[in-house]
Sequence to fold (423 residues):
Amino acid sequence: MNTRQLKIGLLGCGNVGRGLVELVNRNSSLIRQRMGVELGITRILVRDLKKERPGVDRSLLTIEPGKVLDNGCNLMIEVIGGIEPAREFIQHSLSRGKHVVTANKALLALDGFHLMQAAETHKVCLGFEASVCGGIPIIRALRSGLVGNNIQQLSGILNGTCNYILTRMSEDRLNFDAALRQAQTQGFAEADPSLDIDGLDAAQKLKILSELAFHAQVSTSSIPVEGIRDITLDDIEAASDMGYVIKHVATAELVRGSVALRAAPVMLPKTHQLAGVHDENNAVLVRGDAVGEMLFSGKGAGSLPTASAVLSDVIDIACHKNRFSVNSEGRVSASVSDDQPSKYYIRFAVREPSAIGRITTVFTRNGIEVSRAAAVWARSNSTKHQVRVLTLPSTRKAIDTTLRAVAQLGLETGRNLTLKVAG
Fold:
């Protein structure tokens, strides 16, 4: 087997960058034997030369971008994160005929379509497997393995922080704040977790997947997004009593020629394939016209799983130099919501349990059939009573109209919660 040489410039040497160096050092002979590729990291861009980086050859480090970008390498790996200067570095590399692999989810969500166009223009590859769901090969599946399928729907647990918090609330009976603190202690949540728990991270990842699966150009700002801050232990237990679990799920579905997108907490039957995905794990459920449903699951974050995904792109480019077309032919539009009828769970915080009668009357008056309703004492907040309503299938528009009518009654003492109930 002829061995191909691949010279790599590495932009960034944080957790993922160090993980990549570790994998290359550990498995270089295995990669050479299996794939006939000799990987060599030529220079590494860092911000601080004095910082300790165990296992990294200090002679490769530099704080000057030009020494990495223009040192004769074949491929550039970007793991510095953020928008700039990452975008500038990637554009520079693509324009000079260098392949690029990136794990930069935020940049791809903002400008991924144009970067893919630039790669196609310059006849080079842009790999970004590590940008969504860490070590799960969902990008490769959509770009190649499932390319012969008409993808009809994809839905997934795309954020490990949300999933860890909801899992601990369910299994350990922790309230939201305690579960978040545990996630932070375990390294599964940032000091400022807003991007994760408010659903924005999942929406960014959904945008990337949707552009691949449906050939759709999507604006992240157009995706309806809800987070998990308002989920209480009472909601977790109420869902369980009804045979459901609460998960934060991002969904894209082809509906009447356009793609309906949403990232929000939902109630899933305990038998649903995504219901059994626990803690920091991610999963994506894809439905194609030929393969039916396929589930991709595994570690969604961490230095080594992410570095593994980066390395898989590097080897794939070295061996195949696959490129993905992003021309406009056959492109579909993205819609805000399909608003197909669904069951909904609504929790109201009220002054008196007798409010249940007036609330259910409003639902009936607005044409929404109630499957069950209960007035209960809120165990996780003993100062409030709750009215919980589970509807029969209705549109979100009708639900929102009804909630506005209930609000006019002046019965509520706090924020309500509305969750879509999956089939």
Remarks:
- The mean pLDDT is 92.
- The CA atoms of residues 149 and 290 lie 6 Å apart.
